[in-house]
Amino acid sequence: MKLLLITILLAGELPNPSTRESPSVVSALRTTGNMRMTVDSTQTPLRMPTDTGRMVWGREDFVRYDAQACDRAIQNERFNVRRTRVQDTVFRTLEHETLPPHVQQVARSCGDRFTAENTPDEQLWSALRLVLAGNRDGEIDAVVSRKMAAARSVSEKARTLLLTIETLMYATPERFHLAQRFLQRLDSLGSEAKLYQYNARLPLLAYWESRFVRDSIQAYAEGLLSRFHALEQSQQDEANLLVPYGGLLNASDLERDFLKQDSVIDRAMHDVGNWRLGAESRIVTGLSSLMSIRKRLYNKQTRPLDGGFWFNHGGTPQPSPGKMSLLVHVDHTYGESGVRLYTLIRQLHERYGDALVFTLITETRGYSVGTGPLEPADEAKHAASYFLDFLKLPVVVLVDEAPYRPLPDGRRRYLTSPVGEVFDGWQFFNAVLTDREGKIQWIGSFGSDRDEARVVALIDRLR
């Protein structure tokens, strides 16, 4: 009996016989020693909120949480969605996005009691995020007003408004129109707040990029560049210059106007050369290299990819004849880090069906997620099982066997794989779009919220 009690204490809280989890939740709990692990994540999460003050088996009590702790609890639940429901959860649908239901439940149970009136000054930013998570937008002004009342200088007021705009734009869903209203207040502070006014427009440009509204992207990007050149030298060193230039390049993707894109690169290199060195200079050089690759490979016929280990291709060579193909380079050793990419693939598959074939291309690295050293064939099977059986992605998988050079200490330095050689080692991009004839129509990045609408526009042009 003592041994049983000790085992229960190691495993977690004492179970309450009056409350039982549903069978689906119970099946999701596996006890290994003193560790509980989630093994079936397609149902409700294990931790459900309660504010009764009573400890409940499998639930989390928020009574003693302050605003910061509630804020962290919400972020943890959002992370758990990514970690445990990567197979079947769509995390963002731009015009209709909301927090997952159980995250909203945490926001209500833990965060609803925190307001502008009862939250300590040092926790007001957490309170603002709780207000947004709980969809209590009517309380936003009260929270921000308290922060503004504590700001004495123009710089402090500008910083408060900048952080407000960033919080609104990084919330789910984004509060674009509210952010614009606070931007007007920030602009009214005049020239002393120039750097803050510049930085506040960066997330607004990202908003238009994620929807690929080309006129708005162009206007915001050019406006940012005008503001950049109006900054003092010391302020320019702190301003992100790559975002507006990246926006201009992305806005011109549909035009196939390489002269225009070269002009953007030349302007970027001129500004970087005049105002800064280091990381941004290297990134602009990378953009220039990407443009060189695009010009060299555009409209080139791709030969069917061969070699390596193929899965789910049905004997059809890739790129698939008579269909558009999106070849996407991934690293299977990164595990769940590509969760947004996998969601984009599902959404595009739902939109285009079999008219668009996805081929995920990865290289052998001697191991896979959760394994020890593997031979290439076994590693390929493990990687393919992750994409096809666990994630259940509607894709063809190619695991390309990469050569390696042994190092004196026994490690391996992997070199570019044969398919990687075809695509310049996948430097500066991770996706290639081909038309029905197998000709390359686009090379770029694919995997973030900014990419979906742009890639959709590119595909629609080829249909």
Describe the model.
The protein is of the alpha/beta class and 463 residues long. It folds into three domains: 1-130 and 140-147, no CATH class; 131-139 and 148-297, Serine Threonine Protein Phosphatase 5, Tetratricopeptide repeat; 309-462, Glutaredoxin (3-Layer(aba) Sandwich). Helix content is 48%, strand content 11%. It contains 19 helices and twelve strands. The protein has helices at residues 2-11, 23-27, 67-84, 101-111, 124-133, 140-150, 154-169, 176-187, 194-200, 202-211, 214-229, 233-236, 242-251, 258-275, 279-297, 339-352, 376-390, 418-422, 452-462, and strands spanning 29-32, 35-38, 48-50, 59-61, 309-311, 324-329, 356-363, 396-400, 404-406, 412-414, 431-434, 440-444. It has a six-stranded mixed β-sheet. Strands 1-2 form a two-stranded antiparallel sheet. Strand 6 (324-329), helix 16 (339-352) and strand 7 form a beta-alpha-beta unit. Helix 10 (202-211) runs antiparallel to helix 11 (214-229). The longest helix has 19 residues, at 279-297. The N and C termini lie far apart (70 Å). The model is unreliable at 1-59 and 85-92 (pLDDT under 50).
